[in-house]
Structure formats: C-alpha cells, structure tokens
Amino acid sequence: MSIPEATATPAAPAEMTIHRAGTTIAPGPKSVASGEFWGEVLLNSGVDGECTVTRATFAPGSITHWHTHPLGQILYAISGVGQVQRAGGDVHEIRPGDCVWFAPNERHWHGAAPHSVFIYVSIQRVQHGAYVQWLDPVAAPAAGVRKD
Fold this sequence. Notes:
Elements: E1 26-27, E2 37-43, E3 51-58, E4 67-68, E5 73-80, E6 82-86, E7 91-94, E8 99-102, E9 108-112, E10 118-125, E11 133-134, E12 145-146
C-alpha cells in the first residue's frame, strides 16, 4: 500500500460510509518495509485528531521499518502470527485477537513472523497533518521472541 500522506483526504466522511473489502488493496512501498506487504486504507483523514485506519497483510518475515506515530497507534491482529518490538524492548509474538498499543512517538516496528503471513488493522490519529514518521530499516530482529 502506498501509505498516503494524511492530507490526501481533508476529513473523514460526514456520514455512515461502507468500505467494501478488497476495493483499495495496493502493494506497499519498498521504502517502509523489509519485504512484501499489501495495504488497504479503510479510513483516511488529514484533519488533526481524526483517525486513519488501515488493514495490512505482510508476507512471511516481512516487517516494517522503525517508525513512530505522533498520537500513538493501536494494532489489532486479525490472522497469522506477527511480531512487534519497541525500541530497546523485546520482540513479542502476537496472534489473532491480540491488541497492541504503541504510545505517542514510541519508536517501533511490526510485521509477520518468519513462518507466517500476518494480517492486522491499525488505527492512528492525525496530528499536524501527519500520522506516521518512517525511520530507518530494522537491522535484524532479535533472535529470542517472547510468546507470553
């Protein structure tokens, strides 16, 4: 998915809107992940305080680069096995139904475990017209993964 700038859409819809599954799936840019992934923007806004919502599918072993969100991020695991890590912390395995909160400006990455496709929904709010800041690639995820 080409993760759009939040300013691509001025505001969330003013009334109930149905987004049909699969209608906006696009391959992700190579500049934000270590491998293949696809994204579907479910809700996009450039208005401060409003949410952007994305469903992403990562190929086995593909992970995002380090990044932050100005007002934090909720990551809800839908299918497969994923991995998440905050800077300086352990790598954690997550599974369907798990929900992860990344605090505002917390440097982190997430993606698929080496042996599994991983699908999640992410929710993040806009601040000063942006909802993500992409940083450097992850050198190598830690060998030990916490499964608690």
